[in-house]
């Protein structure tokens, strides 16, 4: 389906793009995913998705959900024909997973919710498995462009943003790939809580797949080509709660025994035999469903101080993790973040990375070893589809305190190496750091930073640009609740 391809390619490229340019074109696509829309309290999108399901069935799963489309692509790699068969629904597992998701949302267990959310699972796969390959390809092109004195491409760092999240993304991909290769949509129709919820409404959809028993020859072509394993040709029944309205069964039926319509067809006998199925009507209805689904929404900078090799910084142990400006508080982040990694993949300063904490597993936290949170950048708040990071202007960001700087005297190069520095004070965008003498009675005493916590916004410029290695002499401690200054 054309729309399914557009949605899948658009969302995938959005996660792969590290320049931020595609967001202006396809930034709406994550916002029409069911769970992010629900958590963002975007009831218009949620209602539209439910209405579409009540009319067309589970077309969301075959067109809008990128994880669903990914399963279809993997299944297509297996060239064997007639590879599926009917199986009964494992209802107890389906509704148990849905119940676990509901409990996770109500209780604010973000890490558990993130593990089950289909869009989030795809986001982690795209960010941690596909984006590094994408960046490697870009760097190859950048090397050729450099030799040709072209600036069409520029090199970018390739690094693992979080090993626990990488491992989860890899395990998720392998499990889903094996299931899709062998059994088609098993994950969608057995584990995915969004699929189970939409499947409940799909049972009452206005348009469904129907059998014409007089035309059916019991050849089993429909069952063998149903990737949802929901067609029982022996009883001429379709489990509409699992059917994703892909239309494969209609295409494979040589006798016109299957139709996509409001009610079961009435066979009209004539002298020439049974009336042929109107395939144009089926095509029109499928096209209308796809169009309706689409209508619901419409620098990297290296600061190293020179050309000498610099030892990598080591992240300090923060008592309170730092959450992005616009997230309001750590509690809001836990409740609403789906850990899709879109903000992590889009961060141009490489400040965001997935948390390794148990309660906040895979959700974004900030650290300043590779960059700092520039006051003019608001990209994470622009791309978040779930409302975990609220849209924020640069002016609002500059007045939002997400943490405060803490000075560690024993690490300062002014004391350890006896050199003048002042990097932290020079680069503080709010003027929260002042250089003061270590000993006011000694004229030759070194100058060290003094932090005015009331003015500090926690951007991390001081921590990132501090020349002390491997531990900075000044670092940012996060705040549980953000406040305006």
Number of strands: 12
- How would you sum up the global shape? elongated
Q: In which range does the helix fraction lie?
A: 40-55%
Summed over residues and divided by their number, the pLDDT gives a mean of: 89
Largest sheet, in brief, is: 2 strands, antiparallel
- Strand order, sheet with most strands: 1-4
What gap, in angstroms, lies between the N and C termini? 51 Å
Figure out the total of helices: 22
Rg estimate, integer Å: 27 Å
Structural class: mainly alpha
Strand fraction equals 5-15%
Low-confidence stretches: 269-307
Describe the secondary-structure layout:
Blueprint: H1 2-16, H2 23-26, H3 34-39, H4 43-56, H5 59-63, H6 66-77, H7 91-107, H8 110-116, H9 118-147, H10 163-183, H11 186-190, H12 193-202, E1 208-211, H13 221-224, E2 231-232, E3 237-238, H14 248-252, E4 258-261, E5 269-270, E6 273-274, H15 279-294, H16 330-336, H17 342-346, E7 352-354, E8 364-366, H18 379-383, H19 394-398, E9 400-407, H20 413-416, H21 423-427, E10 433-437, E11 447-451, H22 461-465, E12 474-484
Antiparallel strand pairs: 1-4, 2-3, 5-6, 7-8, 9-12, 10-11
């Amino acid at each position: 389906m054309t729309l399914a391809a557009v949605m899948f390619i658009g969302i995938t490229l959005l996660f792969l793009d590290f320049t931020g340019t595609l967001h202006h074109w396809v930034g709406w696509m994550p916002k029409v995913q069911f769970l992010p829309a629900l958590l963002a309290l975007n009831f218009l999108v949620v209602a539209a998705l439910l209405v579409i399901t009540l009319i067309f069935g589970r077309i969301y799963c075959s067109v809008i959900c990128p994880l669903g489309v990914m399963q279809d692509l993997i299944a297509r790699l297996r060239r064997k024909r007639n590879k599926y068969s009917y199986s009964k629904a494992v209802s107890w597992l389906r509704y148990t997973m849905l119940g676990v998701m509901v409990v996770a949302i109500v209780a604010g267990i973000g890490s558990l919710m993130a593990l089950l959310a289909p869009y989030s699972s795809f986001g982690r796969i795209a960010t941690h498995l596909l984006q590094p390959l994408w960046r490697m390809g870009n760097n190859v092109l950048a090397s050729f462009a450099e030799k040709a004195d072209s600036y069409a491409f520029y090199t970018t760092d390739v690094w693992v943003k979080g090993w626990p999240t990488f491992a989860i993304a890899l395990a998720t991909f392998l499990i889903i790939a094996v299931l899709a290769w062998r059994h088609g949509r098993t994950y969608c129709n057995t584990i995915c809580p969004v699929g189970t919820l939409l499947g409940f409404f799909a049972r009452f959809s206005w348009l469904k797949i129907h059998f014409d028993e007089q035309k059916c020859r019991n050849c089993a072509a429909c069952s063998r080509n149903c990737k949802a394993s929901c067609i029982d040709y022996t009883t001429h029944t379709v489990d509409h709660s699992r059917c994703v309205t892909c239309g494969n069964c209609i295409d494979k039926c040589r006798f016109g025994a299957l139709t996509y319509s409001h009610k079961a067809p009435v066979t009209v006998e004539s002298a020439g035999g049974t009336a042929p199925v109107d395939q144009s009507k089926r095509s029109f209805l499928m096209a209308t469903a796809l169009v309706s689904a689409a209508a619901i929404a419409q620098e990297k900078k290296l600061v190293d101080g020179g050309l000498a090799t610099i030892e990598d910084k080591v992240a300090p142990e923060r008592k309170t993790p730092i959450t992005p400006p616009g997230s309001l508080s750590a509690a809001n982040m836990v409740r609403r973040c789906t850990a899709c990694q879109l903000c992590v993949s889009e961060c141009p300063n490489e400040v965001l990375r997935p948390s390794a904490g148990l309660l906040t597993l895979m959700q974004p936290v900030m650290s300043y070893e590779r960059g700092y949170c520039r006051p003019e950048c608001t990209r994470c708040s622009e791309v978040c589809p779930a409302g975990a990071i609220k849209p924020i202007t640069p002016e609002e960001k500059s007045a939002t305190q997400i943490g405060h700087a803490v000075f560690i005297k024993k690490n300062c190069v002014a004391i350890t190496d006896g050199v003048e520095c002042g990097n932290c004070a020079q680069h503080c965008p709010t003027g929260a750091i002042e250089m003061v003498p270590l000993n006011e009675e000694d004229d030759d005493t070194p100058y060290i930073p003094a932090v005015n916590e009331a003015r500090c916004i926690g951007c991390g410029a001081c921590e990132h640009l501090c020349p002390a290695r491997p531990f900075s002499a000044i670092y940012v401690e996060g705040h549980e609740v953000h406040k305006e200054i």
